[in-house]
Amino acid sequence: MEVVDLKKREVFGKEGPGVALLVDEPHLTVRQIGLEPGREVPVHTADAPVTIQVMRGEGLFSAEGQSVRLVPGKLLRIPQGAQMGIVNDTVLQLVFLVIKTPQPSAVGGQVGSFVNLIDFAPVKPPKQEAFLEWFRRSSEVFKKHPGFISRTLLEPMEGGHRYAAIVEHESKGTFMDMHLSDDRQELFKEVEPMVMGTSKPHFYQMVISYRK
Fold first, then answer.
1. Which of 54, 76, 100 is the last residue in one of the domains?
2. Most CB contacts within 10 A, which of 90, 120, 159, 186?
3. pLDDT in tens, 97-111
4. What are the residues facing 33 on neighbouring strands?
């Protein structure tokens, strides 16, 4: 038996949500999210069935094109694949639980690894070395996040200044925890002046992998 003190596990981010992982099992994850006034969880796709319960405060929760104001004492259920987002539009802190029940994939009965492919915008020629150093430094930060597997930078063989990166995580859930963290927000603000335009992310789930 395990008792979790939710009050002691409250976490708040400086720019985005604070995330505390309470339960991490193959078919159940429970996270407690803390949002300061004016902060939000950007709209994203639910990678599993989600149940949300507000512990204190209130906020605006959106899913499938609809919005609802949620307060303590009510549950919000969101189906897998729905677009969802949360905004704390009050002057008080918002704390809520996100309960996910991931379903096994059809391949081997296991949830596959989550892969993020980033197509970076072209790097400004004078910023080449700075960009490479940023990638090394940011990777050292990201690898400390739960669920991290690898982060690889690819350089085009035909030349040019457009790099790509492959990021492997145990699941989309662990990747989103990292993606929404203050670490990620601050580090990607640093790289914006080094590139010309907007980098494009692509998301995949690993189905078959052959490795020597």
1. 100
2. 120
3. 999 987 654 334 344
4. 19, 96
Choose the final residue of a domain: 78, 100, 122. 100
Q: Give the tens place of pLDDT for each residue, 113-149.
A: 889 999 999 999 899 999 999 999 999 999 988 889 9
Does the predicted model carry a pTM greater than 0.85?
A: no
Full domain range(s) for residue 190: 114-205
Contact 96, 60 (CB under 8 A): no
Instruction: Check if the beta carbon of residue 93 is closer than 8 Å to that of residue 30.
Output: no
d(CA 117, CA 168): 9
pLDDT score for 107: 37
Largest pairwise CA distance in the chain: 59
- Residue 171 in any domain: the answer is yes
